[in-house]
Amino acid sequence: MIKLDGTIQRRFFFPSDSQTTLLYFSELGRIIYFLPHISVVDTLDKDHIRIHYQTVELGAYTINVYCDLGCEAFPEEMSIKVGPFEVDEVIKPEATLNSTSGYGYFSSQALLEDEGDGTGIDFQFRFQAKLPRPRGLRMMPRRVVDRIAMSISQGRMEEMIEGFMESALAAFPEWLESNKVQISEP
User: Residues near 138 by Cβ (< 8 Å), separated by ≥ 6?
Assistant: First the structure.
């Protein structure tokens, strides 16, 4: 088995008031596209989706993890939580010579607070999965496989959170322009 388990926390400054920031980040079906290595497989509704995480490690081994996610915003706490959403059809673990696929768990939490002329956002991301070893890795020592898993768990989490915020910041002006009426209403 390959065990992936990565957690990362970051604080970001977002150039908008906290209410607008909460609204911007609380639609899972739109913001999930900001995450690198992630594609949407199925959308049950705007707050419940199935995602596919894919990466190639060591130039040869494809890692596929599927997660079902739900999202909920808590305006009174100024927080947004994304976490596992249970469905009947889970992905069965499978390994080939140079790939592994299975079901995993992704969660995130964003805590927002007013900060100067914008919003401070404390993000926490967590990603977990237990996947069968690709057959091509079965002869590789456990410590090497564990090192690969650590790279995926921590290194890719770094890429994901940084890429997420870069994409969110880049997309914000267009979203703000198209939602001016909704934001200005009490």
Answer: none
Fill in the DSSP letter of residue 58.
Answer: T
Please give the chain's pLDDT, 186 residues, in tens: 888 888 899 999 999 999 999 999 998 888 999 988 889 998 877 778 999 988 887 778 888 999 999 999 999 999 999 998 877 777 889 999 889 999 999 999 999 999 999 999 999 999 899 999 888 777 788 887 777 777 777 777 888 889 999 999 999 999 999 887 566 554
Can you tell me which residue has the tokens 């939490």?
109
Q: Pick from 23, 8, 50: which is nearest to 164 by CA?
A: 8
Give the DSSP per-residue string, 108-169: EEEEEEEETTEEEEEEEEEEEEEEPPPGGGTTS-HHHHHHHHHIIIIIHHHHHHHHHHHHHH
